[in-house]
Amino acid sequence: QDFQKKSAARGRLVAAGAQPDSYSADVRRDKAARHDKVDFRANATATGSSAAPANKADAAAVPPRDAVDPLTAYFLVERRLGQGGNCTLTVPVFDGHHRYDLKFTDLGEQKLSAAKDQHYTGEAKACKMTRENAAGETDKDKVEMPQRGTMWYARLMPGDLMLPVKVELVTEVGSVTGHLAELHGRGADLKFGDPKKE
Q: Which residues, including other chains, have CB under 8 Å from residue 158's CB and lie 6 or more apart?
């Protein structure tokens, strides 16, 4: 399958972590395309819409008051770790098309060593992630999102964030491994190169 997804979120930092204001995503799978958007601001309750749902059953449902978008969900974990907490956390998520929970479990400190595509070396905080559909949700479009995985976070720049340096995800079409390649901002200017060439 030819699959592409581009998403963006806007929001505010709050005492509890972060509050999203809006989220949008453009999804393309082979020749089919969909645009999802969510406005989290109206009366503090999220509402969303997906362009051209196939039928009423596929139209976006109104999520619970405390739901956030997928990008904010991962940001909450990054900020929680950056403030000295652990990543054991359940986050209700709504993206305009799906309603699910992301459940994170703390796996403790682990040492990552440079090998093959892994360029970051050092201590990292490991977190397990599991995606669970909300009650009444079907497994539509499962290919779009990872079902479970492990992420490793490290403190790479000043501030209250730890950032993912490695991810291993299981999806409907197979396993995916990703590594941080570059980081720019907040006083950091990092580029992880191939250790064989350095």
A: 186, 187, 188
Instruction: Tell me which long-range contacts 121-128 makes (C-beta under 8 A, separation of at least 24).
Output: 122/154, 123/154, 124/152, 124/153, 124/154, 124/165, 124/166, 125/81, 125/87, 125/152, 125/153, 125/154, 125/162, 126/150, 126/151, 126/152, 126/153, 127/77, 127/81, 127/87, 127/151, 127/152, 127/153, 128/104
Averaged confidence pLDDT in the chain:
82
Cα–Cα distance measured from residue 157 to residue 85, given in angstroms and rounded to the nearest whole number: 17
The dihedral formed by the CA atoms of 65, 70, 76 and 79, expressed in degrees to the nearest 10: -150
- Find where tokens 């976006």 sit: 60
Entry pTM: 0.82
Over residues 70-75, the mean pLDDT reads 95
Containing H/E element for 174? strand 174-179
